[in-house]
Amino acid sequence: MRTLIPIALALFTVLPALSQPDAEPNDDLASANTVEVNTEIIGTISQVAADNTVDDLDWYVFTLPADGRVRIQLAYAPAGSSFQYSLFGSDDLNHNIMRTETNLPDSSARELWLAAGVYYFQINGRGVRGARTYNLFFEHTPAPPVDLDVEPNDVIETASAITLNATHTGHISHVRTDNTPDDVDWYAFTVPSDGQLRVHVSQDPGGFAFQYNLFGEDELSYAILGTETNLPASTVRETWLAPGGYFLQVNGRGQRTGRTYDLMLEHLPAPDSEVDREPNDDAASASSITLNATHTIHVSHIRPDNTPDDSDWCLFTVPDGDVTIRMSYEPAGYALQYQVSPAADPANAVFGTETNLPMFSVRETHLNAGTYLFHVMGRGARVGRTCQFQIEASQSNMRDWILY
Questions:
Q1: Quick one: how far is CA 373 from the chain centroid?
Q2: How far is residue 60's CA from residue 109's CA, in Å, rounded to a whole number?
Q3: For a surface tag, which of 69, 81, 140, 165 has the fewest beta carbons within 10 Å of its beta carbon?
């Protein structure tokens, strides 16, 4: 095996004996070097030409003999140099299938699913004038497309099929050659039975605007679950879903920095009593809940028509006595309010909070025996929030219970 840079050893642990150097000039698509998959490529970039211009692009073209998983491994030296790459299909050279962040780590491995065909690969030295050496490897393994990013999936009609309870890796905000970002990925999945769905998402690098929305296939104009516009680097959100087909849209919010994310849809068969069940935006569609149990809801999910879902209604029954309502929500800093009204008269609130409820709150009141509506209002804020609350009825031994 031929190696030029020590840092590559950690990335290229097992490689065939085959290797090939890049052949200059290969600075544009027309002069792309033809290379083989499963073969190490050794290249040099950002050599300053005699006319003081920078050679900071290398182009390659390769052919996949069969559909499958492609793992792109890249390592370069010296460390700390700016590096980026893009992948194109030969049938659409105006659209990046995948593009990395602008400052790629010294060694990296990214993977996706590609159909059989011809592809172009561009390495970009980002204008740095110091010469750098890199090792590149396209590892190809025939595989079905399940749970791998399949581009293009920028619209619902081309949604990638994914399975429940498995980690899926995706890429977003790959800037097209016309300078517009690919910042939406769509996925389709099927829920086999009633239950709780936990959406696990982590993105790398973090710190960039990121959001997702969940839709039922029978109501694509309304998001069942939607997150805030600046999702943390790692999150878990949950909702209740009936059996059926669903779509998940991941939105990069127009950021031009490429990001890789991991997504897992964890399905847990469960009753619907303590999990948010949409739509519950009015008194007539209120979700039934039980007393003395923690209930999770989501509010202010922005619909595709740009109007917010900022009301959730829940229905509960109490005996005569004191009632304690404990609530927490995240993220903090956004208006939130709730009211309690008789089920027979939703417009007549018998108890309610201020319009800017603290992130953690405990409130008490007295209710006569009967059935009531609990109405949570997002106050028009377009930021998705997850709320947990518990309604305790005449159980003094629970007064020191803390919601977390």
A1: 34
A2: 18
A3: 165
3-state DSSP assignment of residue 398: helix
CA distance 99 to 165: 27
- Distance from the first to the final alpha carbon of the chain: 55
Q: pLDDT tier at 311 (50, 70, 90 boundaries)?
A: confident
* Overall residue count recorded for the chain in this entry: 404
Q: Are 232 and 214 in contact (CB under 8 A)?
A: no
- Which residues, at least 6 apart from 294, have a Cβ–Cβ distance to it below 8 Å? 274, 388, 389, 390, 403
At 392, the amino acid letter reads: E
Residue 283: strand, helix, or coil: helix
* Residues β-bridged to residue 315: 288, 373
**Is 28:59 a contact under the CB 8 Å cutoff?**
yes
- pTM above threshold 0.70: no
Q: Are 107 and 69 in contact (CB under 8 A)?
A: no
**Which strand (E) or helix (H) includes residue 121?**
strand 117-124
| Closest among 192, 163, 171, 167 to 264, alpha carbons compared | 167
Q: What domains are defined for the chain?
A: 8-141 (2.60.120.380), 156-268 (2.60.120.380), 283-398 (2.60.120.380)
Let me know if 151 is exposed, middle or buried by CB neighbors in 10 A (0-12, 13-18, 19+).
Answer: buried
**Top-confidence residue, 307 or 387:** 387
Q: Please tell me the distance from the alpha carbon of residue 384 to that of residue 237, in angstroms, as a whole number.
A: 11
Count Cβ atoms within 10 A of the Cβ of residue 279 and give its class: 0-12 exposed, 13-18 middle, 19 or more buried: middle
| Other CB atoms within 10 A of residue 223 CB | 24
User: Is the bond leading into 144 cis (omega within 30 degrees of zero)?
Assistant: no
Q: Which amino acid is at 339?
A: Q
pLDDT for the residue 330: 75
Rounded to whole angstroms, how far apart are CA atoms 286 and 342? 13
State which amino acid sits at residue 130. G
